[in-house]
Amino acid sequence: MSGVHDDAHEDPHERTHQDAHTPRTPGTTETTGSPGTQPVSRARRWLVLAAVSAGLLLISVDMTVLYTALPTLSSELQATASERLWIINAYPLVMAGLLLGAGTLGDRVGHKRMYLVGLVLFGAASLVAAYAVNPAMLIAGRAFLAVGAAAMMPATLSLIRITFVDERERGIAIGVWGTMAMVGAAVGPIVGGALLEFFWWGSVFLVNVPIVLVALVLAAVVAPGGSGSSDRPWDLLASVQVMVGLVGTVYAIKELTSPDPSVLAVGAALVAAALGFWSFVRRQRGQTYPLIDFSLFRDPRILVGVLAAGMAMFALAGVQLVLTQRLQLVLGFTPLQAGTTVAAMALGALPVGVAVGALLYRVGTRPMIVAGLLTSAVGTVVVLLSASAPLPWTVAGLLVLGAGTGAAMTAASAAIVGNAPAHRAGMAASVEEVSYELGSLTGVAVLGSLMAAVFTRTVTLPDGAPASAAEGMDEALAAARDLDAANAAELVSAAARAFDNGFLVTLVIAAVVLLASAAFAFFHKRGWNGEATGKAPGQRRNGEATGRAPVRRGRAR
Hints:
Blueprint: H1 12-19, E1 30-31, E2 40-41, H2 42-64, H3 66-77, H4 81-109, H5 111-130, H6 135-163, H7 167-198, H8 203-206, H9 208-222, H10 236-256, H11 263-285, H12 300-329, H13 335-342, H14 344-363, H15 365-385, H16 391-418, H17 425-458, H18 473-480, H19 485-523
Antiparallel strand pairs: 1-2
Helix pairs in contact: 2-6, 2-7, 2-9, 3-7, 4-5, 4-6, 4-10, 4-17, 5-6, 5-9, 6-7, 6-17, 7-13, 7-14, 7-16, 10-11, 12-13, 12-15, 12-16, 12-17, 12-19, 14-16, 15-16, 15-19, 16-17, 17-19, 18-19
């Protein structure tokens, strides 16, 4: 690939990083860090994990915390259906656009510095969002939050990589890391629901501030430093190109699923998206130090890991969004009750994610990815079939869905990070997290918009109901308050049936996506020959990837 650094060639920065990661002798209590850092003691490296996990938990919670708060803040701020979409999507959209640039910037200035700066930005943005006075200000606050999150996310995984060198410890650490991402996304709705029981909607953002302060102090004290590699440029233009592509794609999805789509608007959005992505790829191929080295995807382990991470989050985000709305708007749950129900996914994910992280060394990543995606699909089907059954059946489905997603995400993280060359640590972390964010973004955009489209096209409004009631369940409930009892009950019943139609369609699509992803991971066997014990060909005993292409006849160590 023209202009792209060949990982098979020796790089001075890579050699320095690799020399710092020589295997430890049994029984030693210290491990090496990144270039230019001091050895990290056993107790300190687990404190590093706690510090980065706190930041990751914040990032993940804010992905889903508005799911239960959305009906309340929509009413308070008088947000339209389109504004509600952008309130949710502004966060993953901006984050996905900036993550690749943030990863390489961390390689340049140091991952600890990026993490600390990200925490400060995240705390300041939380204050802006908490005191928003209109939908536009809240959307801007969510975008500002994404800037801080994008700075933090690649640094969390990169700090784990340079802190944990022992392969078994790193597997556990990555398991905890992946589980925290899953748990944060799962408990976001319950956090939002609990806060809304006692405080105003802005409290779902304000609660971030004290956690930011604790994580900031802890990371400043225990995280390994390092100045990074000053010869690595930061490509802001490439991040803008990605952002244009993503915004165009999301806008096109939203417009296509609107009641009266504009062909001109859809066409313009798709052209902008295509130009953004095309110019980004073209620019990366001409850069000595690209934001993303597409040769990484020649390794099937990384390719499958990226796909698994993205599709797991696609299904998780979509199911969470439509289920929390259904529990509140159709079944009449309070935000706290809805959040508590959906949090069952976290109960399934937490033990499974940690256990999988510990077992990867023996079992390998591909079997865990396949098993996790299949389990998630089964859980999604159970949630779908339990729509008219007692609540415990829904909870059981969510537990299974959480367990499968936790396993798939942990194994995917290990597949991506464990098989990337050392000098691509920040890039690999960014690629992984971009796959998470794109999965979440597309899950909300596609399934959320599809949900709204099915509602609009299948709802039958009774006589006297305003046309605005066909825009969504929120609008139907608001319109019912202005009707007499008989007409109001008829409108609510019709809206609930239409909402359930959309619920059925979105969960079927989520299950199909998970099954298709599992099938791809299962049949895409080439290049996995040496992973019988979780160690790929070309890996050292301490888990560092050499950067050489996998050999056909690798043998398990």
